[in-house]
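Example with several molecule types.
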Amino acid sequence: MTSRRDVTLTYTVLGLFSLIALAPIAGIVFTALQDPDGLAGFGRFDGIHPGNFADAWRDGNFGQYLKSSAIVTVCVVACSVALSVLAGYAFGQMRFRGSQVLFYVLLLGLMIPMEAMIVPLYYDLRDLRLTDTYWALILPQIGTSVAFGTFWMRAFFRSVPRSLVEAARIDGASSWFTLWRVLLPLAMPAVLTMTVLLFMWTWNEFLLALVMVTDEGLRTAPLGLSFFQGRNQTDLTLLAAGAVIVATPVVVLYVFLQRHFIRGMLSGAVKG
Amino acid sequence: MAAVRFTDVDKRYGDVDAVRRLSLEVADGEFMVLVGPSGSGKTTALRMLAGLESISGGEIAIGDRVVNRIAPRERDIAMVFQDYALYPQMTVFDNLAFGLRRRNVPKEDIERRVQTAADLLGLEALLSRKPGQLSGGQAQRVALGRALVREPQVFLMDEPLSNLDAKLRTQTRGEIKRLQHEVRTTTVYVTHDQVEAMTMGDRIAVMNDGLLEQVGTPEDLYERPANRFVAGFIGSPAMSFFDASHVAEDGAARLRGQDVDVRVPDAQRLPGSVTVGVRPEAARLWDAGRNGIVGPVRGTVAYVEALGRETFIGVDAGGSRLAVHQEGRTALQPGDSVEFGFVPDRLRYFAVDSGEALG
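Resulting structure tokens for the full complex:
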């Protein structure tokens, strides 16, 4: 039994940390809503002026940046999720020669940071005449995302009771059908969580975009925000509004998908 | 329906032999139980038959067809798993229909067969539920139903009762036996529980350490165990053993061991020293009536297991612990001295070194 005092203490601690975590976000939002002609100060609340967003959108060319980000992110996430599910299924459920070694090779992609490979990657892509195209942003990020995604989905497929797959095999289902109709419905929480993570990482990727593209029309939102900051050193309100615009899609996706994180789909499948 | 034949089947994992030269025939329509302790290879044998494990050597045939290289879904088998393995996102109906849909059975046929199986197993009210909403016993019946609707050549069951509580297990045991009797489908049933094996199997194959020790009817195994392992594994409480010398004595024989000196009819030619196997019912208290028993043998009561209708008394004598059967109850307590005797023609003899049955 937890006593009333314990509960109070728990909530106090949790509340405090929530406040610490949320304060900067609230600060940015408040700053973005400040009177553009008033005295700018971080986190100061002096009424709601949504016009700042329109100004930032126009001044910062965010329409273009968000479009680029959306193209890159949707391509990367869609391809990575599809490939990760397939690769995770293979590594998690199938036995084949060299699977261990291959899996470790894949993990390298997870362990080597973008900073370490960005220079050779730039030269490679330049040789392929892909710099300054969307491909330069999409292909490398599919590579790194699949490393994580495979790792993530393999863990899920390994946790599925073997007997479930075997039952499907005996019942006459092919590997493909087993994945599609038996396992994937169970994997939805794992797939959606992975989707959110990959979306967030891809959306926020800065270094790759900075190195690979110079064309204004290809710049992604974080890059745009950075250039916008360079031009608006002094206008804190507009900068905050730009930051909020760039962050919103990720937040919206998270809020939308987290409701679908259905847990416990497996409960009752097998005695456990 | 079809017969099943294992011919010299091996299964190796690296250096470990899980199954060694297994040869076993299961007749068409027979209920064969594979029984043995953990690691005896019984589940591996079943999984090889199912096609879930490759076969390292030998040959497995279902009917006239060698299935070594045939995929599980083409073997026309249905399997009931220990953890049921129901598809959690599908209703009971869809679980039952899954295998039929994969085989392109016409829709009306699926309906009919699922209904028939549901009637047979009392699942009508559960058809629209999902596995998460079923009790253990219900999930178990759905798992059986999923095998039943397929109307396969062979049923494979891998310890299907081990997740049920004792009462439900006894009940389901009878139910599976009844179903199998009705549909007459060849069944291979794996269990580590010798009571399940004895009550369900037409014949039983006892496995130990990858080897098939003996195949026979429950009565064969109980009355005529091929070796000490089978003798000790089948029966509850288990057969007890003690070592004795065997000396011929004017038309009969004398068994002499520590604490033991009894005259037995010399029906068999036995070597000088033997291991004597005693079923609990082949040992009776001396006072309870000396008719037909030889003895007495003195010992000390080690434990008393009173089951109500009968009592098993563990007695330390002859250098080992022997179980003695007694109708009804007893006033004996652990530590008491006691005298008992043997039913001479119920004693079994085994070679001291190899453990093989003698006589």
